[in-house]
Design goal:
By secondary structure, the chain is mainly α. The chain has helices spanning 2-28, 30-41, 43-70, 77-105.
Length: 106
């Protein structure tokens, strides 16, 4: 899980660059913004956005796991494994839920 936490953290850096590029396109005018929207709306663009949202949620849930450890709980091997599984299931579930809500409200 430590590696996954680091990978999602790196993904957040890369995704933030893409969000900054999208904001620059929005400030550059309608043609640039339409191009950015077309890229983001493509299959590959949505896949990248999905992975970015998973990285964000997974990193957040992993941070909560670290907070539990900071409080002095969950160090035994059985609890660590339960927390790791909880992190994966929760982050995947929340990511799917966020996307379902976003698509319904769209």
């Amino acid at each position: 899980m430590s590696v996954a936490h680091r990978v999602t953290g790196t993904g957040l850096y890369l995704g933030t660059v893409l969000i900054a590029a999208w904001l620059v396109a929005a400030a550059s005018g309608p043609v640039a913004f339409d191009t950015a929207q077309a890229i983001a709306g493509s299959f590959l663009g949505r896949l990248v956005l999905f992975l970015y949202s998973f990285s964000l949620i997974h990193h957040m849930v992993g941070g909560l796991r670290h907070f539990v450890w900071d409080l002095g709980h969950g160090y035994d091997p059985e609890t660590r494994m339960k927390l790791a599984k909880f992190t994966l299931v929760t982050s995947a579930s929340l990511t799917v839920l966020v996307w379902i809500v976003a698509l319904v409200l769209r």
